[in-house]
Amino acid sequence: MTLLAVEGLTKRFGGVLAAKSVSFALDEGEMLAIIGPNGAGKSTTFNMVGGQLRPDGGSVMLAGKDVTGLPSRALCRMGVGRTFQVAQTFLSFSVLGNVQMALLAHHGQTRQLLSDAAVMHRDAALALLDRVGMAAQAGRPIGELAYGDVKRVELAIALAAAPRLLLMDEPTAGMAPSERTALMALVAGIARAERIGVLFTEHDMDAVFAHADRILVLVRGEIIARGSPEEVRADPEVQRVYLGHSGTRAAGRARRPVHG
Ligand SMILES: Nc1ncnc2c1ncn2[C@@H]1O[C@H](COP(=O)(O)OP(=O)(O)OP(=O)(O)O)[C@@H](O)[C@H]1O
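# adenosine-5'-triphosphate complex -> structure
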């Protein structure tokens, strides 16, 4: 089923047309990547879908409902989640405590007494941590974790809001190459099992070509190519304007797992 349908999204910043009539659709359980050179309009498009930017034109439909221009808080209540970096202030809290707080926020219980909050949603938080492979580290302060593990906890925090659509802006930025593919494999597994649609931007071509179901290539605000990783990899225009020599090598190197 179509989860997200974007039609003719347009955004102008002064003289710059950052997104020019961008249209695409995303199904439940699908991993859709937006790639393109710096300044192509990836973040702009992403932020219009996530409610951080109001489009100048076009529409965003979520499961058949028009959500164009709604702020991110409203979208969040409708099932649009986003991964955010763990705030500095929460680094001293335990991994479990952070996920419990996310669950409290999702259930509108942020005014709970701290003593109650410590026991609330404990099992659900542990289940989420188990889902991202972090249950064994539940008691540790987040500030002590390796960077790749922090990213897993951020994913558990995003999942606490039970999103139908998850937006991930450069989820693997700053990670070591081996950690990047592992994180994207984890996200893809969860997305498919739980029918969550994932829209992500990413500069790491190995991660994109190994884990996206479909790819949109944005150049100067316009989609110049779209399709499966195989189709996008083979597109001569994409190779010319974006992938170049090293990117094409990465795209060819990445082997997609076979999904049943
Ligand atoms: N708030 C803003 N004010 C003015 N211009 C902006 C603003 N945000 C983006 N732009 C311009 O819009 C264009 C698209 O930017 P955007 O950040 O969406 O690209 P991007 O593909 O995400 O780039 P990167 O890969 O570098 O993150 C660029 O020319 C950028 O300078």
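# post-check
The mean pLDDT is 89.
Strands lie at 2-13, 16-27, 31-35, 57-62, 65-66, 80-82, 165-169, 197-201, 214-219, 222-227.
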